[in-house]
Amino acid sequence: MRAAVWLLVLFAAAAAVALFAGNNQGIVTVFWPPTRVDLSLNFALLLLILVFMLLYGALRALQALFSLPAQARQWRLQQKERNLHVALLDAVVQLLAGRFTRARKSALAALAQEHVLAGLEARLPQAQQVRVLAHLMAAESAQALQDRAARDAHLQHALNEGRERGGMSVETRDGVQLRSARWALEDRDAQAALDRLAELPQGVQRRTLALRLRLKATRLSGRTQDALDTARLLAKHRAFSPDGAGSILRGLALELVGQAHDPAQLARAWAELDPAERTIPEVAIQAAQRMVVLGGDLVVARAWLLPVWERALTQPEAMTDAQRAKLVRALEAGLDTVDAEWLARIEGAHRARPRDAHLQYLAGMACMKRQLWGKAQQLLTQAGLAQQDPELHRRAWVAVAQLAEQREDTEQALVAWKRAAQGG
């Protein structure tokens, strides 16, 4: 469409020129004593146009001639700027490829090119960001090469760029801080990493990357409670898969419970757990076992185990045999002071599932504590024959052997001791 319009305009201009020039009888006379020159008006106009074009071309040629030095200088600056970006890009590529020595050389070359450009008073608009990135690449390479002195020097240069000239972007500064925290973690310096993270704004501290670094730092420094709080935030942000989040939270909860050195500290640790974490079988079982070891209130320990116990009865497929065996051992540890309510729970569960080896063992040990020797021997013998857990299997036959010795039944005691020693 545009070509058609231009063609119409061209034809219109040609027609106008033809109409004007075809009937133009005007004459231009130029007196140049003693000469007189007569020219047609059309030729005079054409001559004027040619003279204008020649003058215009001459002026443009002179302008181009005088601008050659400036253009040459601009071309040299562009070449230096191009070399700077090539060196910085090569540093990134070499770093990704694991060639850390070459990456550091390229980063230093980029810094040298930027220094040359600054000396020529041709500062780039993004010069400060280029310097920061070059220092960061050099520091990353030095960290990989275990050259901590060079790493710290480049890191300090990168941080000083923002303080001295005030042009570092917020994202660049945050990136430098996060990288420095990661390097501190790689050096196993958890406190330095936490200090770097604490210097970040609150919004940046809640980013997934910052939270991951904080989780590693708090675990490395032994701050289990802080690590657990951080892991909860990461799980809320869906930074882990559901299984991964559950595994991390379970491990930290177990670590928090295991660090308690007295019943009061254990109770405080239990109170710090979320309701969902308290229902994790391993956590509740370890907390109860820890309470027994510390000589605390066994009633409280059994209260912690109650949700897990109810889950084992109502949803037996939700717990593995190993978890159920640990639950039985945790309840067994407090049978000396078990109340009537818990005895009723144990007996009711055994009546509901009489063939369950775990419940047979627990009910047998409860009968043994209450000095119901005959029933205890029957239940423990059945549990010993059906039990798959090696520890419960051994304990069941040890208890049967002790009961046989009380009755002075040497033969049965020897058989039970043999089964306990053989593990089957």
UniProtKB/TrEMBL annotation:
Keywords: Cell inner membrane, Cell membrane, Membrane, Porphyrin biosynthesis, Transmembrane, Transmembrane helix. The chain crosses the membrane at residues 42-62. Pfam families: HemY_N (PF07219). It is found in: Cell inner membrane. One of its GO terms (cellular component) is plasma membrane. GO terms for biological process: heme metabolic process; porphyrin-containing compound biosynthetic process. InterPro entries: Heme_biosyn_assoc_TPR_pro (IPR005254), HemY_N (IPR010817), TPR-like_helical_dom_sf (IPR011990). This is Heme biosynthesis protein HemY. Pathway: Porphyrin-containing compound metabolism; protoheme biosynthesis. Involved in a late step of protoheme IX synthesis.
